[in-house]
Amino acid sequence: MDGDNSANVFNFNLAPSASATDYRGAKRRKESEKKTRVRMATRKLEVDKATKKQAHDERGRKLAESAAADSLRRDDRDRDLDRDSIMQDDDNYDILRQEIHDLKKQIVDLSGAHANSRRELQGHQAENKAKDDAITALTNKNNELENKFVESRQTINHLNQSSKDVDGHLNKAYADLEASNAGRKAAIKAKDDADARCKEKSIEVASLQGHLVKAQTTINNLASTSSALEQLERDNKALQAEIDNNSDVSTQHDQEIAVKDARIQRLETELQKALQGKLSAEAAIADAQAPTAAPQIPHGDESLESELAGLSDSEFVDVSSTFEQLEVSEIHEIASQVPVPAVPLHASTQTEASDKTISGIHSIIEIAPEDTMSIVQTPPQFLTSVQPVPTVATSKKQSVSKFLAALLLFLVILFWKQQFELSRNDHGYYARSHHSRYGAFGQGRYLLGVFPVGFDIGHSEWSERLCAYMSRAILSFEEWAGSTPTPMY
User: Fold this and answer.
1) How confident is the model at residue 409 (pLDDT cuts 50, 70, 90)?
2) What is the CA radius of gyration of the chain?
3) Which parts of this chain are annotated as the region Disordered (predicted)?
4) Among 71, 158, 323, 484, which residue's CB has the most CB atoms within a 10 Å radius?
5) Would you state the pLDDT for residue 410?
6) Is residue 170 part of a domain?
7) Which residue in 178, 186, 206 sits closest to 380, CA to CA?
8) Long-range contacts of range 336-340, CB-CB < 8 Å, 24 or more positions apart?
9) What is the pLDDT of residues 97-143, one digit of tens each?
10) Domain boundary among 158, 174, 206
């Protein structure tokens, strides 16, 4: 059919001609038509081959279409060439014969290729048939598996129903087992509680026995210390009597010192007044004895010795009969001090009796109640076979007895008071009164007007020497600095 169409396309006028040129042209046209038919047949084979491959391979289809398009383009090009060759001269005849030969050879090659394509097509058809058979077998097998799946699902549903029944029976069995376990645990707990109460009672008995032993020991200690307490009471009374006696003596000393202080104050006031009167009298005498005019001493050419020898004491005596009347100077009060009333020289040394009161009753020994031991019991663990053991919480801290602490404090205070009283008796009442006006090394002074020096009385040989050396050093420093301390009178 394609060949017919090609023939229709290339339907040239082939009427015979008398001239050789027309004959050769007609021959060339016939060969060209033959060549065109061959090409069309080849193209048809290629198209058929591509069409057959299209059913099996999409890629082959694309290649076949591309090959068919290339073949059509080549045919168009060849037809154009044939038209051009027909119009050429007779010299192209040999070339056309060679082309015909080549085309025949291509036809043979294409026939072989067509046979090979046919064989390949048959192979592919056989392959497709085998695959179709395999697909049919797999479809049948799939159907069988679907049937088996349905049967398996039914079996599984049946097994699930059976499993639910078994779970119900198991839950009932578990409930019965839990009930029996609860009863067993209750029995074990009752047994453990009884054992714990028994152990608590035994521990309480042991604790009461320990308290009884401690109480008996405390009673024995108190009985042994009662005689010591009585002796302490007697010593306390003796010390109190001695303290009262020392207080009376110190009061008497205080009165004597007060009397002596008042007398010293009065003497100092009288001494100041006497000194003031003496100074006023000396000033008046000096004013009265002052010469009215300076003596005239002649000057000469003699020596000093001759001049002194020529003078006599009478020349220095004022023999004038006229006296200069002097005014009496006013009395200026240097220090305004109130006169102290006279103190009797003999004062009674007997002091007034001090009022004695009965002191309150104080407990010497304070016995605090002892803390009872607390028992801490761990909760029983019923799930294990280990029995809970109650633990006794005891204090590990050891402290001194309150009675011993109070007794030690009382003895320390008593010893300190005894030492204080002994020190007062040895060194006087003002042994510990600071900044007293009556120091051991003269009048007290303030170093640089700030630091007090020489106001205290030493109470030992070492302190006396130290104060003496310190006083000398301060005195030397004041002399070097040119600062003289102001006297008290």
Assistant:
1) very high
2) 78
3) 1-85
4) 71
5) 92
6) no
7) 186
8) 337/269, 337/272, 339/269, 340/262, 340/265, 340/266, 340/269
9) 788 888 888 888 888 888 888 888 888 888 888 888 889 888 888 88
10) 158
pTM greater than 0.85:
no
Side-chain-facing half-sphere of 453: CA atoms under 13 Å? 20
Q: Which domain holds residue 83?
A: 2-158
Instruction: Give me the long-range contacts of 251-258 (CB less than 8 A, separation at least 24).
Output: 251/351, 252/349, 252/351, 253/428, 253/429, 254/429, 255/347, 255/349, 255/351, 256/347, 256/349, 257/429, 257/430
Instruction: Please give the average per-residue pLDDT across 170-174, as a whole number.
Output: 88
User: Which of the listed residues 105, 136, 158 is the one where a domain comes to its end?
Assistant: 158
Residue 192 in contact with residue 387, Cβ under 8 Å?
yes
Q: Pairing state of beta strands 391-393 and 445-447? A: unpaired
Distances in Å between the Cα of 150 and the Cα atoms of 144, 156, 157, 253 are: 10, 10, 11, 133
Does the CA dihedral 291-293-297-299 come out positive or negative?
Answer: positive
Q: How far apart are CA 135 and CA 468, in angstroms?
A: 137
Neighbour tally for 89: CB within 10 Å? 8
**6 neighbors 40 (Cβ within 8 angstroms):** yes
Backbone angles phi, psi at 303, to 5 degrees: -80, 175
118 closest CA partner among 212, 27, 207, 45? 45
> Which pLDDT tens digit goes with each residue over 51-70?
666 555 566 556 666 766 77
Per-residue model confidence (pLDDT) at position 83: 61
